[in-house]
Amino acid sequence: MGFHKAPNTYTGEVRIKVKDVKRSLAFYKEVIGFNVLNETEHTADLTADGKNVLLSIEQPPNIAPKQQGTAGLYHFALLLPDRSDLGRVLQHLVHLNIPLGASDHHVSEAIYLNDPDGNGIEIYSDRDASKWIWQGSQVAMTTETLDAQGVLAEAKGEPWHSLPENTVMGHVHLHVSSLKEAEAFYDQGLGFKTVARYGRQAMFMSTGGYHHHLGLNTWAGEGAPAPAPESAGLDWFTLIYPDADAVEQAVARLKNMGAKTFIEDGFVMTADPSGNRIRLTY
């Protein structure tokens, strides 16, 4: 998983707003397999390795159901270390009768589901990077039927317990109001490069030759508005830079573009043109 460490810039903790923190906590522990690192009456920090927070959930006051047809989270994606791990997760979710989607993207194999608030979740494993097909700066990605039986066979009947310790936040996929504006922001401001396009409505960006750390789409509609602040859904997601200088350089580029940055809870924050909030750290 060298694509999720320095010198690359990659995705880290995602924070979502939920209607019922106890309901969400039960789901993320029992269905997804997170462990709780910190917990209060209205928040919880969730981890796979007992040290690093991958997902934090919060139940703000006066929270409203997740709005449809807006910018925001399409899904966050948990990257597992191995295909056999994906097999055990799939075996577990099938046993629970959880509604699932599943796809083979050539670069990876993935299963999809929603949390109780409708927040999208992808759980996936990568194929070896030597098998990815590049044409210049663009990587070939497809959406084909997952070989579910082949994935399940990798589990060899071994029981599922929880997310593997080496699970990382593989990527974040966002609804945006304009691909052109989003691409300029994430490229010129935050340092990501476009590595794949899916028609005229979706694109994928990364650093360090990964197939994607960021997905962007207009499937909620061109010009989709930002959700209301009280809506359940994405609060912010984290981009992890190699060091403090890299964060400062990103801030300078954002300011040159006219994008705002600010400090919140001791971290540099910004928002893309669609209102998706981003924490910049190292």
Automatic annotation (TrEMBL):
Top-rank lineage group of the source organism: Bacteria
Domain VOC: 10-126, 168-282
Pfam families, alphabetized: Glyoxalase
InterPro entries, sorted: Glyas_Bleomycin-R_OHBP_Dase, Glyas_Fos-R_dOase_dom, VOC_core
Record's signal peptide: none
PROSITE patterns, alphabetized: VOC
Name recorded for this polypeptide: Glyoxalase
Organism in which the protein naturally occurs: Metabacillus indicus
